[in-house]
């Protein structure tokens, strides 16, 4: 390279900087002229200009609202409910995303190994999901009613009434009774421990389908990787034998 000659890339950078400076100067000059013109118009003209600007803002706002409220048809397959057609908008997608996060971050979809965790914690987590789902639906705006589509509220309430409510109403009182009668005993000595864990895993399998449905409604990509492995079926007879062996240990 000859002395005193700038590299080509430096020349391009300088040219771009000069062009941006000129463009900014021209834009600023035009904006200044517009503002100056507005300050010199009569009151009648000023009202006309203000009305025109307000109309433009209203048009842009209505267009944004129309896009936000636009319904999109989404087909979701839930093993317990077969294939359903949902009508979703931005609000319902937000509710579906919230429900997806709640379901996949709790014991409701994460396996509970035989030697890990306790049933009490699992029941508490499931009850937390129940309460959070109700609160989410209470504070959310109801989805538009359409003749041919279900709503995200329908999916969430069905999960509560068909999966969580029966499981909690059955096992929470039983475990509570055992805890009160045997405050110093390990949970592994609870006679219903194996049966409760087996049913918990069946509920987890079902809720996994609901979580996948919420992900579909929310537009989550690669939802299966986020949800994790589906708990496999448990053999209740093996669980009973295992618990009997634990109880018989000195």
TrEMBL record:
<keyword id="KW-0812">Transmembrane</keyword>
<keyword id="KW-0472">Membrane</keyword>
<feature type="transmembrane region" description="Helical">
    <location>
        <begin position="21"/>
        <end position="39"/>
    </location>
</feature>
<feature type="transmembrane region" description="Helical">
    <location>
        <begin position="45"/>
        <end position="65"/>
    </location>
</feature>
<feature type="region of interest" description="Disordered">
    <location>
        <begin position="228"/>
        <end position="250"/>
    </location>
</feature>
<feature type="compositionally biased region" description="Basic and acidic residues">
    <location>
        <begin position="233"/>
        <end position="250"/>
    </location>
</feature>
<keyword id="KW-1133">Transmembrane helix</keyword>
<protein>
    <submittedName>
        <fullName>Uncharacterized protein</fullName>
    </submittedName>
</protein>
């Amino acid at each position: 390279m000859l002395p005193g000659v700038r590299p080509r890339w430096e020349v391009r950078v300088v040219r771009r900087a000069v062009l941006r400076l000129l463009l900014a100067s021209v834009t600023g000059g035009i904006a200044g002229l517009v503002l100056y013109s507005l300050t010199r118009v009569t009151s009648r003209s000023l009202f006309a200009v203000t009305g025109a600007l307000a109309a433009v803002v209203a048009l842009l706002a209505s267009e944004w609202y129309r896009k936000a409220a636009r319904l999109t048809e989404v087909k979701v397959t839930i093993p317990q409910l077969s294939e359903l057609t949902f009508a979703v908008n931005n609000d319902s997608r937000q509710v579906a995303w919230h429900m997806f996060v709640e379901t996949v971050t709790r014991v409701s979809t994460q396996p509970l190994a035989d030697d890990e965790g306790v049933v009490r914690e699992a029941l508490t987590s499931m009850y937390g999901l129940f309460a959070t789902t109700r609160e989410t639906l209470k504070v959310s705006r109801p989805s538009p009613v359409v003749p041919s589509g279900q709503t995200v509220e329908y999916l969430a309430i069905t999960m509560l009434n068909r999966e969580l409510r029966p499981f909690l109403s059955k096992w929470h009182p039983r475990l509570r009774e055992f805890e009160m009668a045997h405050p110093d005993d390990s949970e592994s000595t609870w006679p219903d421990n194996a049966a409760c864990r087996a049913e918990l895993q069946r509920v987890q399998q079902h809720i996994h389908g609901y979580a996948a449905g919420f992900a579909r409604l929310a537009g989550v990509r690669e939802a299966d990787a986020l949800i994790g492995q589906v708990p496999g079926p448990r053999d209740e007879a093996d669980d009973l034998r295992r618990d009997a062996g634990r109880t018989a240990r000195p």
